[in-house]
Write a structure and sequence with these properties.
Length: 171
């Protein structure tokens, strides 16, 4: 009983801190991340993402004529319903019309500056999140109309399909 309450409190604390951390940062869109995370020397992270289904997630809604439906946009674009997310600024429809970098790594206005990015501790302070299975499950769940109950989401398998790394530093 006591244990259950503790776990409940922990979960609450976790939710409040992540909400605080994410507060106040603006979405800038994947093209801004591209500037520094593209090309062989940088691990082709942008290229890997842009060839993934996450980069085409608004397209599949357009094909169905559902690209204005809030119930669909919630999982198919970047930051839907957030003050600076998709839909807030018409000049950013294209940049945020996808499951972009910031869906998983957090809104990037503060951490994406070079001096901040080069220091993992500073980047974290400026809102950079380390995504994990929980991040994926916010969308890869039974609320998705195409969710296949017989094939539940498996993180390890699924992450392999979108895996990306910064190049290893030479010692
Ligand atoms: C001005 C250049 C620049 C921009 C813009 C930029 N980054 Fe970075 N980022 C870097 C550098 C440099 C590193 C350090 C690792 C490396 O050299 O690849 C890094 C590291 C990272 C890391 C790993 C951090 C760690 O703790 O290991 C993540 C995640 C990341 N960037 C995501 C993003 C995202 C998402 C965006 C866009 C919102 C973005 N970056 C925009 C330069 C940039
Ligand atoms: C809870 C999040 C969520 C919501 C809400 C959602 N989707 Fe999706 N959608 C996903 C995910 C995740 C996938 C990837 C496949 C899967 O696991 O279902 C996907 C895939 C798709 C695909 C591609 C399927 C394929 O076979 O390639 C289409 C089309 C689609 N969704 C349409 C819609 C429409 C239309 C709506 C609104 C009526 C909607 N989605 C609402 C998360 C969501
Ligand atoms: C904001 C919602 C959202 C989040 C968070 C998210 N995804 Fe997705 N994911 C989608 C949607 C929507 C699609 C379908 C896009 C399409 O078909 O064009 C998809 C498709 C995929 C696909 C392609 C599936 C296939 O059958 O080809 C993989 C793999 C995937 N996601 C892995 C992940 C992983 C791993 C994470 C967590 C690290 C994650 N996703 C987080 C929304 C999301
Ligand atoms: C669907 C979620 C998702 C999306 C979209 C995504 N990432 Fe990641 N990214 C991850 C996960 C998960 C990791 C591994 C985190 C860990 O355990 O270190 C990661 C790791 C990274 C790293 C660190 C790699 C390393 O070598 O440690 C960088 C840099 C990065 N991502 C940049 C980007 C950029 C830039 C984009 C967009 C072009 C992007 N990511 C899009 C989920 C995502």
């Amino acid at each position: 009983m006591v244990r259950k309450i503790c776990l409940g409190l922990l979960a609450l604390c976790f939710v409040t801190t992540s909400a605080t951390i994410a507060f106040g940062y603006d979405y800038i869109g994947a093209p801004k991340c591209k500037i520094c995370h593209k090309g062989e020397a940088k691990g082709k992270i942008y290229e890997i993402w842009s060839e993934s289904k996450h980069a085409k997630s608004l397209e599949v809604l357009k094909v169905k004529g559902e690209d204005k439906n809030p119930a669909c946009l919630a999982c198919h674009v970047t930051g839907y319903g957030k003050p600076t997310g998709y839909g807030a600024d018409s000049t950013k429809f294209e940049a945020l019309g996808n499951v972009g970098c910031e869906v998983c790594h957090g809104p990037g206005s503060a951490y994406s500056k070079m001096a901040v990015m080069q220091d993992p501790a500073k980047a974290k302070e400026a809102g950079l999140l380390t995504p994990d299975e929980k991040t994926c499950l916010t969308c890869h769940n039974e609320k998705s109309p195409t969710f296949n109950k017989d094939k539940p989401f498996k993180f390890a398998e699924s992450y392999k399909m979108i895996e990306h790394h910064a190049p290893k530093k030479t010692q």
